Amino acid sequence: MLIPSLLVSIAGILIILVGLYVRKKEKTSFIAGHNQLFHPKNEKRLASQIGLVIVLFGMETVLFPIIFQLIPRLDGTAFLVVAMIHLAAVFIVILADQLSQ
Predict the structure, then answer these.
(1) Whose CA, among 6, 34, 84, 100, lies 20 to 30 Å from 50?
(2) Looking at residues 15-32, what average pLDDT do you find?
(3) Exposure string for 49-83, b = 16+ CB within 10 A, e = fewer
(4) DSSP characters for 9-70?
(5) Do residues 49 and 27 touch, judged by C-beta distance below 8 A?
(6) What separation in angstroms does the CA of 78 have from each of 11, 66, 85, 91?
(7) Contact, 12 vs 58, CB < 8 A?
(8) ∠80-83-89 over CA atoms, to 5°?
């Protein structure tokens, strides 16, 4: 159980680094549909907000193996719910950017 937990934590650290990179570069060209389905109104703010969502997801990914060990009834479904919430947050951030003036 130690090796899978370490691998998940390493993946979480990589996700955090990606989020920090997005925030630092202030670019959103990695988002599917960029310049085809939508054009960012404020790309710097959008990149900052999406980077924050990615960093938070990475932090939760790092913490998940620890919490998984502390709560015996917890399973992978809880992580799926967290991932879906973050996916919804990205869509909400993009929608808020599109609706802004």
Answers:
(1) 6
(2) 84
(3) bbbbbbbbbbebbbebbeebeeeeeeeeeebeeee
(4) HHHHHHHHHHHHHHHHHT--TTSTTBTTTB--SSHHHHHHHHHHHHHHHHHHHHHHHHHHHH
(5) no
(6) 17, 13, 11, 20
(7) yes
(8) 145
- For residue 77 the two structure tokens come to 């479904």
Place of tokens 């650290």: 13
What is d(CA 63, CA 61) in angstroms, rounded to the nearest whole number? 5
User: Is residue 20 within 8 Å of residue 53, measured between CB atoms?
Assistant: no
CA distances from 38 to 11, 34, 44, 78, 95 (A): 30, 6, 15, 32, 10
Instruction: Write down the pTM of the prediction.
Output: 0.84
- 51-93 tens-digit pLDDT: 999 999 999 999 998 888 888 888 888 889 989 999 999 889 9
